[in-house]
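Supplementary Methods, section 5.1.

A reviewer requested that the exact input to the structure prediction be made available. We therefore reproduce it here, unchanged from the version used in the analyses.
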Amino acid sequence: MEQGRIILTHDRLLLTLERLALSIAESSAGEKGICIIGIQEKGAFFSDQVVTRYQNLPQVIPFEYGKIDITFYRDDFRRRESPLKAYGTDMPFLVEGKKVILIDDVLYTGRTIHAAMAALLDFGRPASIELMCLVDRRFNRHFPIQADHVGITIDSVEEAYVKVHWDPKAKNHHVILHPGKV
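The structure derived from this sequence is encoded token-by-token as follows.
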């Protein structure tokens, strides 16, 4: 595999996380409460980072935070040669009538988001859903899905692969665009 190039350095990624936390506050002004939900597994790492920053903002809108597993809602879970690993859902609340901010790290084909929206219905019918992603690969959709809150938008060939590295111990988070599939 060829070496990839860093498209978000650690410092720029930290600024992006701050901006996205502020974006939640701005879009939720006037709301009585919101639900922030990270998609397991990689979207949950990203949502943890955003929620930590959101909590530290002044005058935070009350919110509930959860993580949702979409393994058995995916349209390809029975078509794989090896079984998918389920990560578990941690949502001790309902989304009925509430504004939901759904968070994933990379928006590519839209299939993950489609599955997440189907999984959300098990927890009620939200009043609205906004999508946040760290990286939007905008020209590769299979479903008509777009993000409301975006860290960075990239245009890349379909064979390229985006890898988000979360390394809290070394404090070295970054995003790499690989020229071919990993």
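The chain has one domain: 12-157. These observations are discussed further in the main text.
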